[in-house]
Write a structure and sequence with these properties.
The protein has 256 residues and is an alpha/beta fold. The chain has helices at 27-38, 50-62, 77-91, 115-141, 164-184, 203-208, 220-230, and strands at 18-22, 42-47, 67-71, 96-99, 147-151, 191-196, 241-243, 248-250. The protein has a single domain, classed as Rossmann fold, CATH 3.40.50.
Length: 256
């Protein structure tokens, strides 16, 4: 297990870099988009709510950076395909991809999960990330130091009752990211890693644990700094999972 490296000494270590963040309208995605912008990146912010994206844009401008706002339902596969082409036409590359968008899904016994809710969880948490890889991989390979970070969960390594759809999709995301990392390891500078945020003060966490005091949890801004470190050109590890609660970088296989 290895601690993350300290941020680079440059005041804006991501100047000139293009970063795409999904689920950027709130929580961890919002905080990560802002952290990358503060470091100098031009942020392509993807989210469903135009108003929330505009609020993020205001904060990015105040931080002295710029953004491209992409109102997009992450289940729109054809929209994701078009996004890759549009980014290539405008920027010719992509330097950073943070796959953060996700849904909790139904918290109910597996035998009682509604098929539509099951399909929605798969579509958002898993299929959209595969579709994003398909669309963005060529752009990330054009970067001098492409970095991809996909958000997992501790639920991926547990078999907790009633968490089936969420846990299954997060476990699948880990295999998806690890497979991608292995495929590009020896043929490009692209590094692909995962992060487990752990319990964070977000709307999703409040939905899962309504009686929990949110003030006892770390803020999205804190985990965003860890994601930011994984996005730096100086971060050379790949195929790893950064466990934010223990502040450690883990290699696979991860003990249950």
């Amino acid at each position: 297990m290895t601690d993350l490296p300290a941020a680079e000494p440059a005041a804006r270590p991501l100047d000139g870099r293009i970063a795409l963040v999904t689920g950027a309208t709130r929580g961890i995605g919002h905080a990560t988009a802002l952290a990358l912008a503060e470091a100098g990146a031009h942020v392509v912010a993807v989210g469903r709510t135009s108003g929330a994206l505009e609020e993020l844009d205001d904060r990015i401008v105040k931080a002295g950076s710029t953004a491209t706002l992409v109102p997009l339902d992450i289940k729109d596969g054809e929209g994701i395909d078009r996004l890759g082409g549009a980014l290539y036409e405008r920027f010719g590359k992509l330097d950073i991809f943070v796959g953060n968008a996700g849904v909790l899904g139904p918290m109910t016994p597996l035998a009682q999960v509604d098929p539509k809710e099951w399909n929605d969880a798969l579509a958002v948490n898993l299929t959209a990330n595969w579709r994003l890889i398909r669309s963005l991989d060529p752009l990330l390979r054009l970067s001098t130091a492409g970095r991809a970070v996909m958000v997992s969960s501790g639920a991926a390594h547990k078999a907790r009752p009633f968490w089936g759809p969420y846990a299954v999709t997060k476990a699948a995301v880990e295999v998806l990211a690890r497979t991608w990392a292995a495929e590009v390891e020896n043929i490009s500078s692209l590094k692909v890693n995962l992060i487990n945020p752990g319990p964070i003060r977000t709307r999703m966490r409040a939905k899962a644990f309504p009686s929990e005091d949110p003030n006892t949890l770390p803020s999205p801004d804190e985990v965003a700094q860890a994601i930011f470190a994984l996005c730096l050109p100086s971060f050379e590890e790949t195929g790893r999972l950064y466990d934010f609660p223990s502040h450690s970088l883990k290699a696979y296989p991860i003990p249950a």
